[in-house]
Specification:
Protein Transport Mog1p, Chain A; 330 residues; 2 domains; disordered N terminus; elongated; alpha+beta
Amino acid sequence: MKTLTIFFIFTYTLLVSAQETFSDNRPKYKRVSEVYGFLMGQEFSINLIKEIFPSFEFKAKKAELAFNSSFGKAVLGIHEYLVELFGPIEFETFRNDLLKKIELEYENREISMEIAAGFINDFEKRALGNGLSTPILETLLFFQFEEKPELEFMQGFTQTFKTKGHPKAKGSDWQIKVPSSWKVIEADRPNIIKKFISDYGSGEESIMIMTQDLELPKDYKVSKEEINELFSEKEVIKMTPKGAKFISFNKVTIDNYSGGVMEVELKQTNEEDKSVMSIRMVQYMFIANGKMYLLQGTVSDDKDLASKMKKFTPLFKMVAKSIVENEQYK
């Protein structure tokens, strides 16, 4: 096997995937406003229960404390986001209108002890992230872990994606875990199996997975020597696309396979408005079963890409460590 074949495949993948950083979504403020309305309704309901049923006050307060312990930062972050977005005066108008709608909703509604007890029980479950529908949970998770995105992963708020049977997976069978708040999006490009966008599709960070056939002769097995040659800084630098800036390379082991992780920075031009965006990418790669497996983490549109990549590197590492190449366990 000639390593140049792999170099070409890798470089092509890197260039193509750089164009898969953007995602069309409805305006973020609409989603966040809806979640704020949910939070206001929840707060109104629990306060009403405490007022009507004093015997439930202790249990209701306990549920409140549990929810605030889990998502207190998110509640504050959502409030600050909307105040900054609307301005203090318009925000108060927005909040008052919401409150009037909630009060009208409860005006002619009878609340029994059974209903109140059921609400408190549901409230307790929500504190654990259970029973929160999409996109409420994803929005809360984003604001809760905005400063340290890896904590969302560490606390078990993850989703698992498996490539088996996917038309773009080229027969590969592997899986990864990504944070629950990252939206799963079908990629337009033919070689990208799946992409995940932060902030439920509104963020400027992405994770993508790809599999490339190396088109090796039948029964050909890549030797350790060839892998060592390929995954070395000297050779990886040669893979850096024209116009891109090589940042770093390190050897890594991914689910028992020797591989590497490369970081580069490049500029991407939007073909519609010709605007230029700086992108920094970290790409994990390994070879198994005659295929190149790639996991790419991307940050973009930021004045200090180095700091932003530093912020997301712990998360990207955790996602890479979650890779399971299932073929080897069959």
